[in-house]
Amino acid sequence: MATIVQKFGGTSVGTPERIQRVAARAVRAHRAGNRVVVVVSAMSGETNRLLSLAGQISQAPHHREIDVLVSSGEQVSIGLVALACCELGVEARSFLGSQVRITTDDAHGMARIRDIDADSVVAALDRGEIVVVAGFQGVNEDGQITTLGRGGSDLSAVAMAAALKADVCEIYTDVDGIYTTDPRVVADARKIDRITFHEMLELASLGAKVLQTRSVEFAMKYEVPLHVRSSFDESEGSWVVPEEEGMEGAVVTGVAFDRNTAKLTVLGVPDVPGTVADLLFPLGEAGINVDVIIQNTAIDGRTDVTFTVSQTEMERAVALAQVVANRLGASGIVADAHVAKVSVVGAGMRSEAGVAVAMFRHLGQANVNIQLISTSEIKISCIIDEKFTELAVRVLHEAFRLHEAPAA
Amino acid sequence: MATIVQKFGGTSVGTPERIQRVAARAVRAHRAGNRVVVVVSAMSGETNRLLSLAGQISQAPHHREIDVLVSSGEQVSIGLVALACCELGVEARSFLGSQVRITTDDAHGMARIRDIDADSVVAALDRGEIVVVAGFQGVNEDGQITTLGRGGSDLSAVAMAAALKADVCEIYTDVDGIYTTDPRVVADARKIDRITFHEMLELASLGAKVLQTRSVEFAMKYEVPLHVRSSFDESEGSWVVPEEEGMEGAVVTGVAFDRNTAKLTVLGVPDVPGTVADLLFPLGEAGINVDVIIQNTAIDGRTDVTFTVSQTEMERAVALAQVVANRLGASGIVADAHVAKVSVVGAGMRSEAGVAVAMFRHLGQANVNIQLISTSEIKISCIIDEKFTELAVRVLHEAFRLHEAPAA
Description:
Two copies of one chain form a homodimer.
Chain A: E1 3-8, H1 16-31, E2 35-40, H2 46-57, H3 63-70, H4 72-87, E3 92-95, H5 97-100, E4 102-104, E5 113-116, H6 119-126, E6 130-134, E7 137-139, E8 145-147, H7 152-163, E9 168-173, E10 194-196, H8 197-205, H9 213-222, E11 226-230, E12 238-241, E13 254-270, H10 275-285, E14 293-295, E15 302-309, H11 314-328, E16 332-345, H12 355-365, E17 370-376, E18 379-385, H13 389-399
Parallel strand pairs in A: 1-2, 1-9, 2-6, 3-6, 9-11, 10-12
Antiparallel strand pairs in A: 4-5, 7-8, 11-12, 13-15, 13-16, 14-15, 16-18, 17-18
Helix pairs in contact in A: 1-4, 7-9, 8-9, 10-11, 12-13
């Protein structure tokens, strides 16, 4: 008897009819002899509706009370999904994050899961019930409701799967799997059958929207196999699994891109130890994620430091960096919001030299100038002019022959 | 330092602006040096919206999951009210029923409060915070969410006031107090300054809509003074208090009426002990409330039994009574949906004979025929033809001079 966690996002539970479809799928899995846990988000639009009410009342909302407010959205979903399962003749029981119980730290709005005590869930499964869990929410040590931040329902599902040692965590979505790149950019983008956690992690953090980075990390840590699949049909989706012998032999698995990138260069920074840390410390304090960081060779004891942040945080980053730059006696800051990051990802790169060279050559042949480069074991990212994003993605997808199924 | 519980219904928190008004009132009371607990219902329309979603999914909804669903409504309200208080500069903290904690029995949809452990609320008040509690909801011993049924938020407020030994429980409403009768029927109906729990209890159960019967019972039991007042202004409302010397000297305090009344007569019932119990038992089992019950003098070993139920339950009551009537060999059932109950209520009746006679005489002079009579220590009810309801109320209001303030 397998244990299956099924996660459905807001669109999949957006109307009563869709909720009935979700319930039908859970009931099918239950009748096929599985122990079934369904994790759901708030109905699409609901979280925004609630935040809009809060926005009409408070300009600087209190995070603790915002969590109380928005977590009501998943409460509605679990009640309705459980009702729909019961209506199909299978006893179902809903669980709030506080009832499971999913314990988190105190960081309201972006809490981290500390522990899951799933005993009551196990008891319900033992009784033959379908369990319906509210995604996105937990409870801190004091019993206050917390929420897990963007994409938190994925994380709830993976964490439930880990706690229950589930055989699979199925992530239902409006696409039918993970693609070699965005099919809206490259028409012959191919669905990937199997991908490793490491690759998925890179793709997720590089801008692929299907899975949230933290949930992939969590799945990797606890070795929870993920199955990303369509909520509209029964077709196989993409499996995200631990790395193993004999997997897809491709050197490059996918091409990711992120237009929400901005580049800052601090000019004429004194080349003494600790300067870059001084420069970036206030950004980290302010919660601004700094991505690619490059430091030029120093000339006459001065150097240029370039880094990227998300476009939406560029203004704040410039303001914060300016304060430090002034203090350090740097000569100025240049910011460019019109850049993008294009990356190739593949576990096979580890053993295959030449991928970086191939990437740079193909971009060069297409007259795409590379502004910054950043590499890891299994990915290479280039910062380029934003207007060449789609061109670069198409060129690389074609160059690495990602439209073709990899050799077995 | 006084402890004040303020209860606001769905209309009072129906929009962000109204929520800001609720918060402003709580903050004023807090700044005046009081310990303030706010109890709120779901925003008006929200509970119906949620039930409508459930209705689209399930025809015979599961009570436990319905409670999970609808209790999200108050969760939204407490989050927003707490945010609004914080925005006005006073730290406020929301509490769900499960967080307070308000423990109930297992009767989902109409649970009864068993216990309130208000330690965490007291701790928050001690820290100088405004406490915002979700009305209408509790939690059973297993940690499942329960709801208290119709008007449950009043009950939550009174129960919180009792648990905290509050100085007053203020019930905010869209009228400015309790009236001698419905002002829509009698233009010179007068606002009552002080009324006893017993009188209020009779009025509430006789059809006055301002307070729910169970909450008045609870307030009486724990001697929680209630102050029913307008959410739109600062005027004094009506106080509901324990009986005491020197209270308003009126014999009759108010006139109540209930058009939602139907009369059933079972004809030719064998006059043997236990017959009426046999007849009414299945109605009680089905949750149908039987109000006035009259049994005629028996003739030839047979009698007629007449009783009233709410109009909305008449058909079910007839069907259930018919089964027993057949078994008992009764000769038939006559039902009349077009009756109403008109009642006069007053604690002074205890010591004042002649109120009943005066009531009957005034109705008779107005040509209103009395079909059934039911009395208690402090009220007299008459069942009359529904079309005479307003006439009867006006005649009695005038006859007992309720438009005049009672002698001090």
